[in-house]
Amino acid sequence: MASPTTASNNNSQEFSPAESGFRNKLRQIFNRYHEQWELRGLGHDQMEAIARDTGIDVHDIYDAILDSSDKGTQYLSMMQQYGISIEQVGGASNPLMRDIVRVCAHCSSKSHCDAALAVGNAVHEADTFCPNAPVFDHLVGM
Fold first, then answer.
1. Are residues 79 and 49 in the same domain?
2. What DSSP state is assigned to residue 63?
3. 74-125: per-residue pLDDT in tens?
4. Domains identified in the chain, total number
C-alpha cells in the first residue's frame, strides 16, 4: 500500500481515455456549478446589465447558464468533430457563435446528438437531426 505522501505526489499519472473523459466531465460539472453559484447571487438588474454588455438576451443567459441540467453543450463536441474552433467562428462573443449556442440549447434532438457524438458519426449524420448542421457545413467549407 502506498503511503499518503507517495499517493499525493503521483499526480503525473497517465489515465486511460475513459478515465480522462470522466475526469474532464467532472471538471466541466464543477465549473458549471461554480458559474451557477456565482450568477445566482446576482440580481436581475445585474443580469440585464451583463445581457446588454454581451448582446445576449437575458432569458438566454438564464437558460444557458443557470439551468442545472447539462443541456445545450453538445455544440462544443459537434464543433470538435467537425474540426471547427470557437476562434474560427469569431470568438465566444461573436453573434454567430451565440446563435449556435442558442440553437443547441433549445434543440429537441439531444439524445440523437449524444448517440452520434459518442460513436463519432455526428458529422456524417448531423444533417438528419442537427439544426446547426448547415452552419457547421458552411464553416468547414470556408
1. no
2. I
3. 898 999 999 999 888 888 778 898 889 888 888 889 899 999 999 998 999 9
4. 2
